[in-house]
Amino acid sequence: MATFLYKLGRLSFRRRHLVALIWVALLALAGVGAAGAPAAGNSSFSIPGTEAQKAFDLLEQRFPGTSADGATARVVFKAPSGEKMTDPGNKATVRETVKELSDGSEVVRVTDPYQARAVSKDGTIAYAQVSYKVSGMELDDASKDALEDSAQDARKAGLTVEIGGDALQAVPHTGSSEIIGIAVAAVVLVITFGSLVAAGLPLLTALIGVGIGVSGITALASTLDLGSTTSTLAMMIGLAVGIDYALFIVSRYRAELAEGREREEAAGRAVGTAGSAVVFAGLTVVIALVGLSVVNIPMLTKMGIAAAGTVAIAVLIALTMIPALLGYAGRKVRPAGEKGRLFGRAKAQDGPARPNLGSRWASFVVRRPIAVLLLGVVGLGAAAVPAASLELGLPDDGSQPTSTTQRRAYDLLSEGFGPGFNGPLMVVVDAKGSDDPKAAFTAVGDEIKGLKDVVTVTPPAPNKAGDTATITVIPGSKPSSVTTEDLVHGIRDAGTDVKADTGANVLVTGSTAMNIDVSQKLNDALVPYLVLVVGLAFLLLIVVFRSILVPLKAALGFLLSVMAALGAVVAVFQWGWLSGLMGVEQTGPVMSMMPIFMVGVVFGLAMDYEVFLVTRMREAYVHGEKPAQAVVTGFRHGARVVSAAAVIMIAVFAGFIGSSESMVKMIGFGLAIAVFFDAFIVRMAIVPAVLALLGRKAWWLPRWLDRTLPNVDVEGEGLRTAADRGDGDRELVRA
Predict the structure, then answer these.
(1) How sure is the predictor about 228, in pLDDT bands with cuts at 50, 70 and 90?
(2) Given its phi and psi angles, is residue 661 left (phi above 0), alpha (psi -120 to 50 degrees) or beta?
(3) Rounded distance, CA 523 to CA 515, Å?
(4) Stretch 680-694: mean pLDDT, rounded?
C-alpha cells in the first residue's frame, strides 16, 4: 500500500493542475445539484418491527383515510388575567381560529375545544387539535405558515397562543459557535506549523470535502428521504476528520523535508507513510458509521451512510489534493523545525537538539508506567460512575428551549391538564379474531383503568366494520418519565391477559410509545453492534500493527473513554451539572440513540489517534529500536501533531453544542468530551504505559498468522528499502 500511495502522492504533486481542477469541478457539480434540489425536510420516521409501528400500520388498514400517523398540532389558548376561555369574546376568537385552521389542504380535521371538552377545569386554558394527512416530516411549508398565521391572529385579539405537537419541526441551527470551532482549529494549525500557508491547507481541503459531501446530501435529500440532521452530522464528522487527516500528511511532509528530501519526493513519502495511516483510520470510521445499519432504524442508517461518505471524501482529498496544494505552495511550506516569518526563523543550535515535550512526556511514562496507568484508569473510572444512572429516552417538546412555542405550549398544557396530557397513549384493540368485539373493547378499557398512573381513559372508538377500536389513555406523568414507560409496559402486559380471555389483540402506539420502542430497539442492538464494529476494526488493526495485544489494548482503551464520556453526558444532561454553561434548559433522560451512536463514532475517531501514534512507534521498532525507545520516538514525531488534531476535533465538535436541536447539542458535547478523554488520557498516557510494560510482547504475532496476513506496509518499509538501494525511488517512479 505504501508504494501505491507513494506513487499517488508524487503523481498528484506533479499533476497538481489536473487534480485541483477535478476537485473544484466536483465541488461545483455538487453545489449546482444542491441549489437545484427541492428543500430538504425531515426524513420520514418508521421503526420496522416495533409494536408502535405495527399499530400504525393496522390503523391505516382498518381506519382508511384517518391518517393515523399524520402530523398533529395542538393550538393552546390561554385567557388574559381575570378572564375565562368560556367568555363570549374569547370563545368567538377561538372558533374563528378553528375555522381558519380547517381550510388547509392537508388538514384532515380540527377539534373545537368547546365541543371536545378541551377546556381546563379552571377555564383559563383550552386547546384545539389539528390533524393532518401527512407526517410532520412531510408537511408543506404552506401548512406550517397557515398554522402560525392563525395563531398570530388570535394573539392580536388578546389571547396567549402557543403551538405544540409535531407539525412544527424547526430545522436545527448551530449558531455562531460552529464558526468559533473552525476559528479555534485555524489558530491551533497556525501554532502547530508556524505558517499561515501550511495551516491553511488542512482547513481548505477539509472545507472542500465537507462542501462536496454536504452538497451531495442536499442534492439527494428529497430522492433518498434524508433529513436536515443528516447533513449536520456529516458536516460535524467530515470537518473534524478532514482537518485531522490533512494535518497528519502536511506534518509528515515537513518532516521529510527536514531530512533533506526534494519536495516531490517528500510529498510522495508523506502520502506513502502518513497516507497509509489515514486510509486505515478512515476505514475504521467508515466501518463504525456504516455499521449503524445493523440497528435497522432507517433514519439512523441513512445518517451513518451519509456521514461515512463524507469521511471517504475526506480521505481521498487528503491523499490527492494535499500533495497537489503542496506543489502550489512550494517553499512557503517549510521543513519541520524551521519557522517562517510569522514566528521568526529558528536559530541554529550548537550540539544536539533539546528533546521536545512529547519526548520528555513519553520518557516520564516509560520510567513510571504503573503509576501513570493506574492514575489514568482510576480517573476515567471515576468519570464513568454517573453512567450507572443512565436513563434513556427520546426528546419531546418538554426538552425544547423555553424560547420556542412548542415548549411554551407544552408547559401550558401541563399547567391546565396535567403533565401526562403531553404524551397521550393510543391503544388499538384488534378484535377481528374475537367472538364478541364489543365485550373485548370494554374489557380492555376496564383493565387499563385499574392500572397505576392512569388519569383518563376514553370510551372505545370502533371502526365502521366494528372489529377494531382505539382507546386514548392520558398518563399522570410526563412523556419522558420512567413512570410513563412502566405504564406502557403495563398496558401491554394487561393486553396479554385480555387476549387469552377474548382473543383480541392489544397494541399501544402514539409518539410516546414509539419513543419507548425506539429506545428498547437501540438497547437491544447495542451489544451486536459493538461486537460487529469492534470485531471488524480489531481484525483491521491486526493487519495494520501485525500484533494481537496492541489492537486488544486499543479496544479496551476505547471502552474506558466511551464509558467516561457517557458518564459526563449523564452528569450534564440528566443530572444538570454545568447545564447552564452548556445551554441545557431542561434536564431529563439521555437521548436513546446516544450510547450506540457514541460507540460507533467515538470508536472510529479513537482508532484514528491509535493508528497515527502507534504506527510511528511500530515504524521505529521495525527499524531496530528497543520497545521503550520506540515509544519515545513515536511521541517525538507524533505527540505534537496528535495533540493538535485532538484539540481541533474537540473544537469542531464543541461548536455544535450551540445548536438549537437538543440531539445535535448532546452529540456535539458527547463527542467532544470523548475525544478529550481518548486522546489525552487513553492514547497519551495509558497507551505508552501499557506498551512500556509489555515490551517486546506488544508486537508479538503467531507465526502462522504472520504468514497468513497480507503485508500492507503502513510503516513505509518498502520505501526505505528502495531508498537504501540507491536507485529505488527512480524504479518506483518508472513503475
Answers:
(1) low
(2) beta
(3) 12
(4) 92
More confident residue, 585 or 115: 115
- Note the residue count of the chain: 735
Q: Which of 602, 619, 627 is nearest to 695 (CA)?
A: 627
Could you give phi then psi for residue 47, rounded to 5 degrees?
-125, 90
CA atoms of 198 and 201, how far apart (whole Å)? 6
Return d(Cα 609, Cα 643) in angstroms, integer: 9
How confident is the model over 590-641, as pLDDT tens digits? 887 788 878 877 777 777 778 778 888 887 887 788 888 999 998 888 888 8
Cβ contacts of 516 within 8 Å, gap of 6 or more: 52, 393, 485, 488
CA distances (Å), origin 576, targets 174, 241, 373, 587, 589: 21, 30, 31, 6, 11
DSSP per-residue letters across 575-644: S-TTHHHHT--S--SEETTHHHHHHHHHHHHHHHHHHHHHHHHHHHHHTT--HHHHHHHHHHHHHHHHHH
Q: How far apart are CA 139 and CA 120, in angstroms?
A: 29
Average pLDDT, the chain: 83
Alpha-carbon Rg of the chain, whole angstroms? Answer: 30
Rounded-to-integer distance, Cα 560 and Cα 295, Å: 23
225: confidence class by pLDDT, cuts 50, 70, 90: low
* 303 burial via Cβ count (<10 Å: 0-12, 13-18, 19+): buried
- Cβ–Cβ < 8 Å for 721, 728: yes
Angle between helices 627-654 and 177-193 (to 10 degrees): 150
Residue 311 buriedness (CB in 10 A; 0-12 / 13-18 / 19+):
buried
Measured CA to CA, the distance from residue 108 to residue 132 in angstroms comes to: 5
Q: Among residues 650, 1, 602, which one has the least CA distance to residue 277?
A: 1
277-283 mean pLDDT: 85
pLDDT for 720: 61
Q: Measure the CA–CA gap between 430 and 492, rounded to whole angstroms.
A: 13
Q: How much is the pLDDT for 673? A: 93
Amino acid 27: pLDDT? 92
Looking at 259-297, list the stretches that DSSP marks H as alpha helix, in order from N- to C-terminal side. 263-290
Closest CA to 190 of 203, 177, 179: 203
Q: How far apart are CA 344 and CA 12, in angstroms?
A: 31
Q: Where are the alpha helices (DSSP H) in 111-195?
A: 141-156, 177-193
pLDDT in tens, 156-206: 988 999 998 877 765 555 455 567 777 887 888 888 777 788 888 888 888
Residues 718, 707: Cα–Cα separation, whole Å:
18
CB atoms within 10 A of CB 396: 23
**The three three-digit cell numbers of residue 728, written as one number:** 529505488
Q: Which helix (H) or strand (E) holds 6?
A: helix 2-14
| Residue 316: pLDDT over 90 | yes
Q: From residue 329, give the alpha-carbon distance in Å to each of 201, 204, 322, 360.
A: 9, 13, 10, 33
> Which candidate, 45, 63, 57, places its Cα nearest to that of 507?
57
Lowest average pLDDT, out of 123-127, 360-364, 399-403, 497-501, goes to: 399-403
Q: Count Cβ atoms within 10 A of the Cβ of residue 82 and give its class: 0-12 exposed, 13-18 middle, 19 or more buried.
A: exposed
Cβ burial, residue 734 (10 Å; 0-12/13-18/19+): exposed
pLDDT at residue 65, rounded to an integer: 65
